[in-house]
Structures are given as structure tokens and as C-alpha cells.
Amino acid sequence: MNKLFKTIAIAAMSLFTLAACGDDDQTKPVKILYPSWAEGVAMTHLAEYVLDNKGYAVETTLIEPGPLYAALSKGDADLYLDAWLPHTHQDYWERFGNKLEVIGVVFDDASTGLVVPDYVEIDSIDELNDNIEIFDGKIYGIGAGAGIHGNTIKAIEEYPLNYEQLTSSESSMMAELRRSIAAKEPVLITGWKPHYMWDLYDLKMLKDPKEVYLVDQIEILSRQGFKEDHPEVANFFSHFQFDSDKLHELMGMVGEDERNPKAGAQKFYEKYQAEIDSWFQ
């Protein structure tokens, strides 16, 4: 009888522990950090909408990449959905990667480089010095914390280019691109794929014979121990993947109303609900 009682007690405790873990997975907030880059904004708001719709508590915070990686490595946040590895975010990975975990790959053909409108009659980075006048020696870039900013500094040194990289925000860079294309003027920006700019305009990425800009994967990073704390959510993000068409469609929907990105996320979820719901299985 004692053995039987012990067996029943152990089984009951196991069930209680499993139930408690399930409750914790559902109620403990999932903290997601993201920078103000189009694909990261879109993916984060989709994840937030889906998880919230499934009853999970979610907190999202807009933050620059440097503090983002630091916070994640310290365990002050849970997830980052837009890590460009192994190249573009190499510096961050070397500093913080030993305290982070990769729990999913969103997209496996992410590229960066220098971009011009299709009507500009050059095709390679090594042609830029012969055309300084038409670009006024300027490369319009984004924030200094972005990996593409660091790679562009390397490109200026490697080729070498008599150009200045103007540091701003993604929205400011895109405003300069819009203005230049409307006026049919040459403009040189730092660009990447996937991004909605390719859906709006006829552009080309300049050839990079010295291979400064290399192809990456967009990976989902978590703090250490996240999978154990949130097994169902971790399983969801292990299936959180897109091809180029769907990722561009998501960015387009979320970008329709910048003041209410969740509306676009909801629209995308409702269109692909069966597929997205299967990511929890």
C-alpha cells in the first residue's frame, strides 16, 4: 500500500508541475525587443497579435540594436526576431552571442548593400568614385547601431570610396529616396532585402566584387532559458518562417497604417490563419 501511495503521489505531483508550467507559459509576459526596421516592425507586430489572440501576455519595446542585444543577453527581455547573422550583426554576436540562443530562422536569403534607382547608369560599387559628382559624394544610411552602417564604413575603406555616409533613420533615408525618384535624380542609399522599397520602386543593388556585404539569415534570438520557461511559445517561433513574397506582403500590410501596425498584422493573420495556427503544433 505504501508503494502504491508513493506512486500515486509522484504521478500527482508530476501532473501538478506540468500544469504549473503550462500556466506560466500562458501568463508570464513574453518580452520582445525590436528596432525601427521595416521587417522587424512587421514581424514583431504579427507575433504580438498572434500570441495575444492565443491568450499569451506580450510586451514589445522599440529600442536601438546595441542596447537590445545587451538587454537580451542579461535576461532583461526574452526575444529578438530580426537578427541578421552571421555577417551583418557579427559584432553584436561576438560580444553577446555566448549568452543568447537561436530558436528559429525567419528568412534564409537576407542581403544588404548599396542601392540606386534603376535609371542610374552604374552597376557596381567600384564605379562610384568615377561618379562622385552625380551623387554629391553622399551615401544616405540609417542609424549608426545598424550592422549595415558598419559594413558601409568597411566598404568606404575597402574600395576605397571618396564618399560620406550620412547617418539618419530608416524613415529619413526612405524620404530622401522618394524625393529623388520623384525628381528623377540620382541617389545612393544603404538598402537591404527584404524591404518594402523593392515593391514601391525600380531599384538595383550595386555589385560588390570585394564581397563586403554578404548574404545572411534572419534569425530569432532568445535569452538563455527561454525555451524552458515558455516551451509553447518557443515551439511557435521555431516555425515562424516566411518566403520572400509573404514577408513583403506582411510588410506591406503592416505599413499601410504606421499609426496602427496591429491592423495590418491582423489582416495578414486572418488571411493565413490556418498556416500560422499550425506553428503552435
UniProtKB/TrEMBL annotation:
Primary site of residence: membrane
CDD domains named in the record: PBP2_OpuAC_like (cd13639)
Domain ABC-type glycine betaine transport system substrate-binding span(s) in chain numbering: 28-270
Protein's UniProt keywords contain Cell membrane: yes
InterPro entries reported in the protein's UniProt record: ABC_Gly_betaine_transp_sub-bd
One Pfam family recorded for the sequence: OpuAC
Keywords recorded for this protein, A-Z: Cell membrane, Membrane, Signal, Transport
Compartments, as annotated in UniProt: Cell membrane
Leader sequence residues: 1-19
Keyword Membrane: yes
Family annotation (PANTHER family): GLYCINE BETAINE/PROLINE BETAINE TRANSPORT SYSTEM PERMEASE PROTEIN PROW, GLYCINE BETAINE_PROLINE BETAINE TRANSPORT SYSTEM PERMEASE PROTEIN PROW
Name of the protein described by the UniProt record: Glycine betaine ABC transporter substrate-binding protein
Organism for this UniProt entry: Ignatzschineria rhizosphaerae
